[in-house]
Each structure stands twice: as structure tokens, then as C-alpha cells.
Amino acid sequence: MDLGIAGKKALVCGASKGLGFACAQALAKESVDVTLVARTESTLRQAAATIQATAGGRVDYVVADVTTAEGRERVLQACSRPDILVTNAAGPPPGNFREWSIDDWSRALNDNMLSSIELIRMTIDGMIQNRFGRIVNITSSAVKAPIPALGLSNGARAGLTGFVAGLAREVVQHNVTVNNLLPGFFDTDRLRNTLDYLAKQASTTLEDYRQEHQQTIPALRYGKPEEFGMMCASMCSAHAGYLTGQNILLDGGFYPGTF
């Protein structure tokens, strides 16, 4: 299926590895001109080279920390009027809320809520003027079913979700959509770090915990990043203009609710 976005410009954050990389790669295969953003130049350069090998469009990258004002300015200098924005930032560490200070909360809110809102603010008017825009925020399945050990993430990402719910309904008349893509357990570095923490809490090995944990997922496996990337690309399709303000959950059936 032709997604109808060849030649569009995409800005993808956290794109040097994991789910951000998968989203950038899927868009590039649709002949979208993609600008990758991450903080580490060595991994970012390698990611750009890997994606360019199968891309139908141009692949650029910019080294920047989008959780800072300076980083966001640098990103927008490299790609000032994107048609597609994928926001993504590393989640805060797991832990017990009794150990978290106001500074810990402020950092989590800045990184996983406010930074995404700022990037949206800086790009959405150009999308409205162009009569095309697709914004996808990578959040977490914790928005639907909070994970106790990830309280900082639960709170920050829920805040972003609430903001998007209102904004999405204001801009869809301009063919600009804003949605959230909620990963469950995908086989990434982030998941491995979380499982390592949980295994230690359970006084078991990482491998044993991982084996048992996968059995709790109806799909009996962790998600593959490329599956996530393809879903992101489909949400950015020219044919997806009626999808907005939604939380698309990819979790292999782990969430037990009907809604």
C-alpha cells in the first residue's frame, strides 16, 4: 500500500536506536526525507548510514538533546518545517516514589511531557499552513495500565496524553493529526534496563525473569521494533487524516481491558 507521503519531511527524535530508529527506518522506506535526532553522534551516524542503505529519500541527522531549549533550536534549524514529527525521549529510571525528589519529578516532566509539547508548539503552525501534518508521540502502555516501578514515567506521559487529547481536536480540521503510540514490552535497551531492575527486586536472574515475564504476554514474546516502526508510518499516512487524539496500544494483548 502506498502511504502517500513520499517526499514529505520527517523529524524523528531518539532515532539512533530502539523504537525511534524503527520509526525513522519505516518512514525512510516510504521515501520520506528523514532527519534523525539523538544525543550521541557515533550511534546516530551509524543509524543514519543503516537507514540510508534502504531509504527512498534523503536521510540527515543532527546531534541534539531535545530535552533542552538549545537542543530544540538546533533541531529546528536542521529541519525547520517538518510535515511529520515523531517525539520520543528516554524514559526516567524505575524506582520507588518515596525516593524521588521534586527535582526528579521536574526532570521527568521536562523530558517526557514538556519537551514534546515544545516541539509540537514549534512545528504545528507550519503544518497547518501546509494543510498537512502528522504528529506521533511515543509514550508508553503505562498510560493505559500504570507500571508501579515506573511512577515517574506514568505521571509525565499521562500529562502529555491529556494535553494531546485537547490539541488534536483543534487542529484536525487543517489535516493535522496528533496521536500517541503506546509501546508495551518491546525488545529494546530500555526494556532490558527495566527488567534488570525488576529481576533484582525479585531476587532472580535477568534471564529467568525475562523468560517468566514473556509468559504473561498473550503473544508469548516481546515486540519487535520494526513492528512498532511500521505502525508509526501507517499513522503518518496521507490516508490517516481521520485518526486523531487516539492512543494506539501495541502490547501483544497484555492490557486486559475492553477499552
UniProtKB/TrEMBL annotation:
Coiled-coil regions, chain positions: none
Assigned protein family: Belongs to the short-chain dehydrogenases/reductases (SDR) family.
Protein name: SDR family oxidoreductase
Species assigned in the record: Advenella alkanexedens
